[in-house]
Amino acid sequence: MTRFLFITDTHIAGKSIGFYQQPTYPDKIEELLATIRRDVEQEKIDFIIHGGDLVHQCDRPSIQEAKRLFQFSVPVHLTLGNHDLDRSDALELWLKEAPEFFVGNSPQYTVRYPSCVIHIVPNQWEPGSPYYWKHSQSPYFLQDQLEKLEEEVRSYPEAVHLLAIHNPIFGVPREQSGLDKIAHDVPADFRHIILQLMQRYPNIKGVLSGHNHINTLARTEEGIFVSGSSFVETPFEYKLVEVSEQQISIETRRVHAGLSFTPSWKEERRFVLGREQDRRLEWRFTS
Questions:
Q1: pLDDT tens across 73-123, in order?
Q2: What is the spatial distance between Cα 16 and Cα 151, in angstroms, rounded to a whole number?
Q3: What is the per-residue DSSP string for 90-122?
Q4: Peptide bond into 173 cis (omega under 30)
Q5: N or C: which end of the chain has fewer CB within 10 A?
Q6: Model pTM?
Q7: Contact yes or no for 9/232 (Cβ under 8 A)
C-alpha cells in the first residue's frame, strides 16, 4: 500500500491570490500546514504531491519561502502550475533554487513507489512559449512531453499509474455547481489527448489536478479524474490517497480544529466542496 497526500494551490507569498472560490488566508499557510505535518508523522505517509500554484508569483523570495514551509520528512513532488511559471525564466529559477521539488533536474518526471508509479506532467499555457504563463488559459502539452510520458508508462507495464497535471481534464458539472453550463470547462483536444492515452494504457488509472480551486471527481471508463480545492481557502482541504495493486481510495480532509483565527465562509459557493461523490472514492480494480 502506498499512502500520499495531495495538496494544491497554496499561492505562497501572495497577499491576495486574485482568483478564488472562498475567502483566502495565504498568510496563515504555516499554521495550516501544521495539520499536514501531523498526518505525515502519525499516518505513515510516503510522500506529498503538490498540484501546482505552490507560489503566487515566481520569484526567488517566494520560492525560498515555499522551500522553508514545505520541508517535510517525506518527499514533496511539485506539478508546476501557471502562477509558478509567470516569468520567462521561471523554469530555470525553479531548478536552480528548489531542485528538491523535482527529480532528475526536470519539471516532468516519474517516481516509483511500492504499489504505484506517479508521473508529474506540467501542462503548458502560452502557445510557442514552453513553461511560461502570461495570459493564456489554453492548456496543452508539448509533443516531447507526451513521448516521454508514454516511454515511462511502458517502462512499468504491470504497475498502477497516476498522472499529476495542474489543469483539470474535466470541468465542473452542472449537477455540482447548480449553474446552467459546465464551469471551468476544458478544451476538448486537451481532454482527448489524456483520454486516448489512458485508452492505450489502461494501467493509467487516474489524474490529479488543481487550478480550479474546486473539489471534483469524474469517473469514466478510462479512469478517475480528481481536482482539489485551494488549501488556503476556507475550509482548508486536502486529500489522502491510498493506492494498492487492486484499489484506489481517496478521502478529502480539512483543517477543522485549533486555528488561531475564525475564517469566513460563502454559503452561496458551497459547491466548491463537492458532493459526497466528489470528496470520497473507493475503487477496486484489477491492475
A1: 999 999 999 999 999 999 999 999 999 999 999 999 999 999 999 999 999
A2: 40
A3: HHHHHHHH-GGGSBTTBSSEEEEETTEEEEE-P
A4: no
A5: N
A6: 0.97
A7: yes
